[in-house]
């Protein structure tokens, strides 16, 4: 399955954070191996992640912020139930 650059760039942070499965990582890597604009964008994002890690590596979000974010994430989850009639 061919990926377009928009899909690859949308998942770059998942790949950088090690949050994608092996199949997704392989598809993204295959695309970037053949697409110089995407590999360049990946390199830029990798440098940004490294810089953020160096400058903010020891910082932890306050518990109140973490709690508010968790609440908002739970509120934004949409559950869809699909029923079939056979």
Beta-strand percentage range? under 5%
Compute the gyration radius: what is it?
18 Å
Q: Give the CA-CA distance, first to last residue.
A: 33 Å
Shape: flat
Unreliable spans are: none
Let me know the largest β-sheet.
Answer: none
- Tell me the series of helices and strands, N- to C-terminal: HHHHH
Domain Putative zinc-finger: 5-38
Organism: Nocardia vinacea
InterPro entries: Anit_sigma_mycothiol_RsrA (IPR024020), Znf_put (IPR027383)
Protein name: Mycothiol system anti-sigma-R factor
Features:
single chain; mainly alpha; 86 residues; 5 helices
Description:
The chain is built from five helices and no strands. It has helices spanning 5-10, 12-16, 22-33, 36-56, 63-76. With 86 residues, the protein is mainly α. This is Mycothiol system anti-sigma-R factor.
Write the layout of secondary structure elements.
Blueprint lengths: L4 H6 L1 H5 L5 H12 L2 H21 L6 H14 L10
Provide a concise account of the structure shown.
The protein is an all-alpha fold and 86 residues long. 67% of the residues lie in helices and 0% in strands.
């Amino acid at each position: 399955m061919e990926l377009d650059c928009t899909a690859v760039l949308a998942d770059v942070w998942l790949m950088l954070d090690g949050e994608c499965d092996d199949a997704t990582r392989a598809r993204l890597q295959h695309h970037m191996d053949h697409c110089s604009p995407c590999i360049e964008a990946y390199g830029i994002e990798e440098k940004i992640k490294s810089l953020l890690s160096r400058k903010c590596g020891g910082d932890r979000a306050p518990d109140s912020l973490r709690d508010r974010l968790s609440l908002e994430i739970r509120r934004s989850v949409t559950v869809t139930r699909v029923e079939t009639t056979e």
